[in-house]
Amino acid sequence: MRRRPPVLLAALGAVSVGALTAVQARMNGGLGSESGNGILAAFVSFGSGLLILIVVAPLTSAGRTAMGRLFVGVRGRNIPPWMLLGGLAGALTTATQGLTVGLLGVSLFTVGVVAGQTVGGLVLDRVGYGPAGVVPVTMRRVGGGALALVAVGVGLAGGSLASVPWWMLSLPFLAGAGISWQQATNGRLRQRVDSAFAATFVNFLGGTVILGVAAAVHIAVVGPPASLPTNPWLYLGGATGVVYIFVSAGLVRYTGVLLLGLGSVVGLLATSVVLDAVWPTDAELDVTRALIAVAVALVGVLVVVMPRRR
To answer: Rounded distance, CA 272 to CA 19, Å?
Structure first.
C-alpha cells in the first residue's frame, strides 16, 4: 500500500501547480497577443505539449506501460468516455489565456480563475466527483473557500476594471471552474489506469484536436496572422502545461479538488504578481492590492490544511 504524502507537502505541490499555471498563462497570453490569434496560440501550446508526450512515451518503461493500460482500457470499454474529456477544459483554459491575458494582465486573469476554481472545487468535492470521493463541506473548508473569494474581491476592487468588457472577465471564471473539473476528471482517469502520464496524454490529445479544429476555422474566416513572435519563451507553454497537469493528476487523489484548487490559488496569485512586475503586459498593476489578495488567499489555504486541535 502506497503511503500518503504529508498534507503540507501535498499542499506545496498544489501551490507549484498554480505557479506553473500562471507562467503558462503569461506565455500563451503573450503568444496570442503578439500573433493576434489567441486560438492559434492555444493550439500551438497544446500541440507542442502533445508532441513532447508522444516522444517521451516510448522512451521509458513507465510511459509504455501507461499507454498500454490506457489503450487496453479504452478498447475494452473499462474506461468510460467521460474520463477522456479532461482536454475540453484544458482547451478552454489555454484559449482563454491566449485571448485575455494580453489585455487583462496575469494578475487580473488569475482573479477570475480563482473565483471559478474555488466555487468549482467546493461543488465537485461535495458531490463526490473527484477521486477522493465525497469530501464533507466542513466549516474549515467553507471558511478557506470564503477567504479565497475575499482575496478575489480585493483584486476586483481595482479601478482598472472599468474598461474591461464583462465577457472578458467571465472567461477566466469559466476557465477556473473548468480547471477544477479537469483536475477531478484527470484524477479519476489516473486512478483508473494507475498512471498520471496516461491522464496527461489524454488531456493533451483531446485539447489539441479541439483547438486544431477551432484554429482552422478561425484562420479560414479571418486569415492567418501576418507574423509570428520571435521570442522563444512564448512557445514553452505546452511544456509547462505537461508538467503541471501531470503533477495535478497525481496530487488530486490525496488533496481533494478543493485543497488542490486553493493551493493552486496561492501559486497563481503570488506568481502572477511577480510576472506582472518582471514581465509585464499592457495591463495596469496595483502591487499593494495584489499582495493583499495573495496574503488573504494564503490564510484561506492554511485554514484548510492546518491540523485541527482536539
So the answer is: 8
Q: What's the one-letter identity of residue 240?
A: T
- Condensed to tens digits (0 to 9), the pLDDT of residues 189-199 reads 988 888 888 88
Q: Which residues contact 287 (CB under 8 A, 6 or more apart)?
A: 273, 277
How many whole angstroms separate alpha carbon 248 and alpha carbon 19?
A: 12
Output the CA–CA distances (angstroms, integers) from residue 117 to 47, 79, 147, 177, 181, in the order listed.
25, 26, 13, 5, 9
Separation CA 174–CA 177 (nearest Å): 5
Alpha helices in 223-279 (DSSP H): 237-278
CB 185 within 8 A of CB 83: yes
Q: Count Cβ atoms below 10 Å from residue 118 Cβ, excluding itself.
A: 28
If you ran DSSP here, which 8-state letter would residue 288 be given?
Answer: H
Nearest to 106 by CA among 66, 59, 154, 155: 155
Distance from C-alpha of 159 to C-alpha of 163, rounded to nearest angstrom:
9
Percent of the chain with pLDDT over 90: 21
CA distance linking residue 118 with residue 260, whole number of Å: 10
3-state secondary structure 291-309: HHHHHHHHHHHHHHHCCCC
Average pLDDT rounded to a whole number, residues 47-73: 89
Q: What is the pLDDT of residue 295?
A: 79
The tens digit of pLDDT for each residue in 150-187 reads 877 776 676 555 666 777 768 888 998 998 898 889 88
Tell me 163's DSSP state: G
Q: Where are the alpha helices (DSSP H) in 160-236?
A: 166-193, 196-222
Burial code (b: 16+ CB inside 10 Å, e: under 16) for 34-54 equals bbebbbbbbbbbbbbbbebbe
Q: Are 179 and 4 in contact (CB under 8 A)?
A: no
